[in-house]
Amino acid sequence: MMDIKMTLNGKQIQAQIEPDMLLIDFVRLKGCYSVKRGCETANCGLCTVLMDGTPILSCSVLAARASGHVIDTLEGLQEEAEEFVGFIADQGAEQCGFCNPGFVMNTIALLRENPEPADDEIRDFLAGNLCRCSGYEGQLRGIRAYLDWKKGVQQDEPEF
Amino acid sequence: MLSFNQYVRAQSLEEAYALCQKKSNVVLGGMLWLKMQNGNKGTAIDLCDLGLDQIEETPEEYRIGAMVSLRTLETHAGLNELTRGAMAESVKHIVGVQFRNVATVGGSIYGRFGFSDVLTLFMALDAKVELYHAGVMSVKEFSDFPRKTRDILVRVIVPKTERKTVYLSMRNTSTDFPVLTCAISGQKDHYSCVIGARPMKAALYDDEEGILAAGITPESAAAFAGNVASRANFGSNLRGGADYRKKLCEVLVRRGLLALMGD
User: Fold this and answer.
1) Cα gap A46→B37, rounded to integer Å
2) Of B7, B95, B174, the CB nearest to A42
3) Chain B hits for A43, Cβ within 8 Å
4) pLDDT tens across B212-229, in order?
5) Where in chain A do CATH 1.10.150.120 domains reside?
6) Domain A77-154 belongs to what architecture?
């Protein structure tokens, strides 16, 4: 067993873990059930969390390596997600919803890095988030609708 | 599932090197490929505290720490200017952003994987690797370096040589492993070509016969493409047969050269 400490969703935590424990299993142990294992081959993006603000696959990072870092899961980013998830739901983009948390986490990372992405930039950034119900077009339409809405809101604001 | 009994964040390269001499111990890169293996290891050696996640620039070269992520390579302005975007093109099709934030250049090169986009491009760039014990050698030499020699890859060094570079790969589906990779580099009128994912590790094919010595034309490009395809060995796996790869090789080399035509 070994000691680790990290900031998980804004809360400082300490724990004793097995040295080969993966971050996905650690955050789930701490109640972050939005983080899911979909593929076992580091391909599906369902386990996406932010480490120091960078999206990573928690299925492939050791909890020990994450020690000393800031980890955010969807549980801690509800407000930021809320702004755009409705637009994706409005498109009926997702059916089973299993891919949703990873998809939302990576969309948050995209919009932080590039607040006004072009369609191809959205496709490139989200290529590592697999959805087996849809053809991704609905999600793309949802994000586009959100960005258009945001632009509209900004345009409505008075200019000084 | 990979399991191990102990995790150590090495505090010096010497410590990491000493630990990795034991056969049952393992050095971690991004751990993406390692995690797919089964087995029980002794100690996992993490290099993450050694400051190797930085790219240093000198007047002559870029010195890329082993723990630099593939995503950092993809978005690095200097490396992309030097390679005319080939750096980004060589990694941007690898799974997804989250994967590339975790995967490291050191792990990608040290593994000398038979599917490696990264090895293909760095070999074409005439890059060198710096090993803690064995010192500096070219990526090409390192690709044939005995696997049983246990060493620490410290950094990868890319010379700022004036050259034209292009990178192409063929994938059956977006974000999958490549069926074939191709990097072409030219200095003045001398060209060489690296073909990877054959599905064996990347190998370099020089323009020994000077087919392109008088410049790239549609005809000379086709001739050199045929020449490379006839010299390279190809194998079969579930992504494609040897004959298909040979055909792809001709097409990618020709397209790559045409992309460089007129530069």
Assistant:
1) 21
2) B95
3) 95-96, 99, 175
4) 999 999 999 999 999 999
5) 77-154
6) Orthogonal Bundle (1.10)
Spatial CB neighbours of B198, under 8 Å, sequence gap ≥ 6: B114, B180, B232, B233, B234, B235, B245
Could you tell me if B235 and B199 are in contact, meaning their C-beta atoms sit under 8 angstroms apart?
A: yes
**pTM of the complete model:** 0.96
| Structure confidence at residue B196 as a pLDDT band (50, 70, 90) | very high
ipTM above 0.90, yes or no: yes
Judged by CB atoms closer than 8 Å, whether chains meet at A57 and B35 is answered as: no
> Which segments in chain A show pLDDT lower than 70?
154-160
SS3 A157: coil
B96 → closest Cβ in A2, A65, A128: A128
* B residues 152-181 closer than 8 Å to A (CB): 174-175
CB neighbour list of residue A23: distance below 8 Å, 6 or more residues apart: A49, A58, A59, A61, A62, A63, A65, A66, A71
Which of B26, B98, B102, B115 is best to mutate for the A interface (most A CBs within 10 A)? Answer: B98
Q: Pick the residue of A17, A58, A65 with the most B CBs within 10 A to test the interface with B by mutation.
A: A65
Start-end of CATH 3.10.20.30 domains in chain A: 2-75
Q: How far apart are CA A77 and CA A98, in angstroms?
A: 18
> Hey, what domains does chain B have and what are their CATH numbers?
55-159 (3.30.465.10), 164-260 (3.30.390.50)
Q: Report how far residue B25's alpha carbon sits from residue B41's, in angstroms, rounded to the nearest whole number.
A: 6
Inspect the interface and report whether the beta carbons of A62 and B97 lie closer than 8 Å.
no
Residue B222 in contact with partner chain A when CB distance is under 8 A: no
Pick the CATH number of A2-75 from 3.90.79.10, 3.40.50.1970, 3.10.20.30, 1.20.140.160: 3.10.20.30
